[in-house]
Amino acid sequence: MRSPTIKDVAERAGVSLKTVSRVINHEPSVHARTRDKVLRAIEALDYQPDQAARSLRSARTFALGLVYDNPNAHYVIAMQNGVLSVCRERGFGLQIHPCDSSAPRLAEQLCDLVRRSRLAGLVLAPPMSEQPDLIRMLAEQNIPFVRIISARQDPQDGYPCVFVDDRDAAYAITEHLIQLGHHRIGFLWGGKEHRSSPERYRGYEDALREYGLPLDKKLVVEGDYSFDDGFRGARKLLALKEAPTAIFGSNDEIAAGVLAAARSGGIDVPWELSIAGFEDSPFSKQSWPALTTARQATEEIGRHAAQRLIAELQRDQGDTTPSIANEGFSPELVVRGSTAPRRL
């Protein structure tokens, strides 16, 4: 059975091919009733626009690129789902592009990717989104993009972004542990190339300072956003003469590694050791006990980034749709069974 064509949609809706094209391209000049008829025909026929053909017929391109470098598969999948859902709604394709954020010619590689693949613009995930030289070069090359960054507030630097307040969420997690009576709280870093790592550390540091607790550097271990680094970091902390009674891992994979290390050492969680993570990934719900964490709306963040980018692309084509402002997200504390009052 052949795939439905734009001609099939036009015949079913009783409109011209040009009208269907205007609806697919989200042009504002179509009457609402006509638009509804076309959309119903598209849904009934399960019509999928050919992005390559659309791009060839016009000067516009109808595909975005999602650029990332992150060892956390759950974060990447949630981000992809968010961006992809908007692309499907708005008739855009999506090209997923994992890359090495430390590559010396990364900016040139991304510019080449956009031109070779005829991408309309890029959604930049951390840490590429937080590299000033890369951002400046993309802007100089007139490549549209939206950044997803870790920041307490809108940086207002002239570049579009979606920002996440990691510091405040990390403060809330640390405060929760302090209020449970924990005074020796270990902290396991994520990768330092991600701005979220120092932001989460600052939240931890701010909470200790404001509650009058000393910052013991022996309780802070560097690493990456991975299960293995969580396991290794926890083993190091638990071997201290004065071991922590609680450990805050910079993401849920790290915290799951801490939980595994505690179990391997016969330590009862949460009664002998409280553990907290960050992001509310599947790790946090599937572990036992389930992890206290900060719920980060990664999929919604991806959706907003894609909406922000497509709105700007359409404005560049003369669309009168209002632009979308930079928006901030604040992860929320989720208390589960991995944290409990410190035993006296």
Short summary:
By secondary structure, this protein is of the alpha/beta class. 44% of the residues lie in helices and 14% in strands.
Explain what the structure shows.
This protein is α/β, with parallel strands linked by helices and 344 residues long. It has 13 helices and 12 strands. The protein has helices spanning 6-13, 17-24, 32-45, 51-57, 73-90, 106-116, 132-140, 166-179, 196-210, 227-238, 252-264, 282-286, 298-316; strands at residues 63-68, 93-98, 121-124, 145-150, 161-164, 185-188, 220-221, 246-249, 274-276, 293-295, 327-329, 332-334. The strands form 3 sheets. It has a 6-stranded parallel β-sheet with strand order 2-1-3-4-5-11, covered by helices on one side. It has a 4-stranded parallel β-sheet with strand order 7-6-8-9. It has a two-stranded antiparallel ribbon with strand order 10-12. Helix 6 (106-116) runs parallel beside helix 7 (132-140). The longest helix is centred in the C-terminal third of the chain and has 19 residues, at 298-316. It is elongated. The model is unreliable at 55-59 (pLDDT under 50).
